[in-house]
Amino acid sequence: MQFRSIIRIVGLLLALFSISMLAPALVALIYRDGAGVPFVTTFFVLLFCGVVCWFPNRRHKQELKARDGFLIVVLFWTVLGSAGSLPFLIADNPNVSVTDAFFESFSALTTTGATVIVGLDDLPKAILFYRQFLQWFGGMGIIVLAVAILPVLGIGGMQLYRAEIPGPVKDSKMTPRIAETAKALWYIYLSLTIACAVAFWLAGMSPFDAIGHSFSTIAIGGFSTHDASIGYFNSYAINMITVVFLLISACNYSLHFAAFASGGVHPKYYWKDPEFRAFVFIQALLFVVCFLILLNHHSYDTVYEAFDQALFQTVSISTTAGFTTTGFAEWPLFLPVLLLFSSFIGGCAGSTGGGMKVIRILLLTLQGVRELKRLVHPRAVYTIKVGGSALSQRVVDAVWGFFSAYALVFVVCMLGLIATGMDELSAFSAVAATLNNLGPGLGEVALHFGDVNDKAKWVLIVSMLFGRLEIFTLLILLTPTFWRS
User: Fold this and answer.
1) Which of 11, 89, 308, 434 has its CA 20 to 30 A from that of 332?
2) For residue range 340-366, what is the model confidence (pLDDT) as tens digits?
């Protein structure tokens, strides 16, 4: 294990993160809301800590191995989440506890969108911008950004990339060099953010709200600058724009790259992808079910309003964004539970969505079908094919291993919450909301997490990290094999 090289890289990444504090400080200066001091203070503190980690180890540039990359990713997300809490702790408004500051920071960076802060409409603009910006930063992953712009990471970049990018297939690269791949991801990410912000502005949002909500929409985070979330704007146009960009962001970014790489738009690349087709089918099925049930229960005055609410909430919850326009927890009970379970599927691999990812659910389904066939024809040999290509047994085993680990982490976290005194429904939905990086839950956590006890919040912070780092990246550090030389 190259510990000094790891400390050097974490120091560099921490110094890089410190620069992000200047953006909300600038917002505070523009709006003159007096909230700039916490961000300037945090900038100097993090820069100093980054230099302290980097300077003594600046000459240690050994090649990173795979396990070094996993340790860097876990270390940095832990350090980053902790560092991100400093402005919340220093600021006078909101006045939050240490636990709440850590919870809000980790929720933002992991794009979970679960908040402990109420009264968002009365917060300084700088704080509101910071929450949105943290989500945007965490959406694609600060480490991928670092690989793109810090050549000092050298040829070990692939180890960081593999540990960071969500999804079961992490060895494929869109471009021959890993730095070019990371840059391509960020160009797409930035372009989508700008397009989303412009669309929101044209639909009637203020420039501040348009930029802030574009950050959390493209990151599929779910934070808003208003307590009423997207429902604050009461606009069909804004709802539809949100739906469109959530669906785009929940698709594999390598598909976006392939569709636009050769100039122009080539939709064929999307429809050729079996995961994309499965994703579209799931979204359509969920929408039809929600729409028909809302109509049957006469939940809304008009058919168009039922259509709008069903479409928005279906996409928002199933892609793990967690935006709300209405109290979906007050719908007929079947629908909130259905949507909560849909968040376990989440977005596509290689997207900013949470959950287990569509490709894994597709592979689990194909494996289940194969086992049924084997019961009928025990001696027959069946192969699992995706997109016309046969998958190796190693990939199938890895998906089953991931599913088992996911279920284990879920059960342990849920039992931990119940042990702190939370009721069963709230505990189940809180873990689902954090492990799937969703945000809103049911019961006690339907609106916010401010009333959750402190011990439960720390359990949920761990759950967010497990969800963001795709279980194995964090779980592997708990195995004795990882630490053996």
Assistant:
1) 434
2) 999 999 988 888 888 898 988 988 898
- What is the reported pLDDT for 152? 40
The answer to the question of whether 111 is labelled as a binding residue is yes
Side-chain-side CA neighbours of residue 76 (13 Å)? 32
Please indicate if the annotation marks 320 as binding a ligand. yes
* Residue 469 annotated in ligand binding: no
Joined together, the tokens standing for residue 369 give 């079908």
What would the two tokens of residue 314 be?
């279906």
Average pLDDT on 260-274 reads 74
Q: What's the pLDDT band for 57 if we cut at 50, 70, 90? A: confident
According to the annotation, is 42 in a ligand binding site? no
284 is in an annotated binding site: no
Q: How far is it, in rounded angstroms, from Cα 167 to Cα 173?
A: 13
- In the chain the first and final C-alpha atoms are separated, in Å, by 7
321 is in an annotated binding site: yes
Tokens of 67: 């396990």
Dig out the tokens for 8 from the structure: 């050097």
479 annotated to a ligand binding site? no
476 half-sphere exposure, CB direction, 13 A CA radius: 19
Least Cα distance to 184 among 269, 259, 109, 253 occurs for 253
* Annotated binding residue 415: no
How far is Cα 11 from Cα 109, in angstroms, rounded to an integer? 18
